[in-house]
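worker-03 picked up job from queue 'complexes'. Input manifest follows; two sequence lines, order preserved.
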Amino acid sequence: MILTDTGESRVNGYLFVLERSLKTFLPPDVVRHAVREIDSHLRERIASADASPDERAALEKILAELGPPLRVAQAYSAERTIDEAIATGRFVAIARALFHLAVSTVSGFFVGLGLLTGYMIGVAFLILAVLKPIFPANVGLHTVAGWPVSFGATFPAPAEPVRGGYSIIPLCITLGLVALVVTHRCARKFLAWWRLRRLS
Amino acid sequence: MSHETWQEQLRRGTLDLAILLTVSAGPRYGLAIIQHLEEFTDLVVTEGTIYPILGRLTREGLLEAKWVEGEAPHPRKYYKLTRAGAKRLADMKAEWRSFVAKIERLTDAAEQES
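worker-03 finished. Artifact:
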């Protein structure tokens, strides 16, 4: 069938939504190839379809068989981002895959929240190690009446002098790196498990 | 696990094998792969989700993709099996036949006992 302007607009609208959805998760060159492939699929289906008695119904059937653009985009990003994250282990790739799962699955949301907390704890310890030489009176173990109440940085400086001295710097660096490495390994294990579950 | 979930897992688990089998006879473009799968199986539920799997199999080096222009009014992306893909397919076929034979034996035994 040869599309009318209305039909052409409907196809372009589908591809536009697909492209916008893909851009959320995937690099531009991957998006371009994906949209081109889906466009080719649609043109092939349309060319072999019969427009009678109703072009609109025929076109909607083709689009329904292809699937909603958001679902197609999710399938692309799931295949792409998770594979890349597991294969490379790069922080950006893992963060992108976790974000994808967090916005598309309930379990992904809660696991992502937990992993984000782990990363934040690691980064917080490293920030404390950096702040200690700059604000020695503010960073350390805070006490009230001799009892430890918190560990971190307080502004302005607390009434009682902070404890721990400069020895907290190597401690914070160690704890920060351990938290980051453990969280990162957990993230990779979770993604590998999720991929296995998806394929099984 | 519901029957539908089990069916879905079975479908997903065999889709890679089905796609590799489809292109094993020669290069095919996306829609031709889907039509071939639809002809022999009911594995394709949503056509659009086949393309990401083709992309993953290509990234894994099991398939090789190439755009061909001029053959139709629109370009077609052809997929063909690589050497690594052919080896993986041979392994998967052997594993599949062994798996099916075991389940058949188990089914026969269960039916004889009942």
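worker-03 released lock.
Chain B touches chain A at residues 9, 12-13, 16, 29-31, 46-49, 51-53, 55-56, 59, 72-77 (CB under 8 Å).
Chain B has four helices and three strands.
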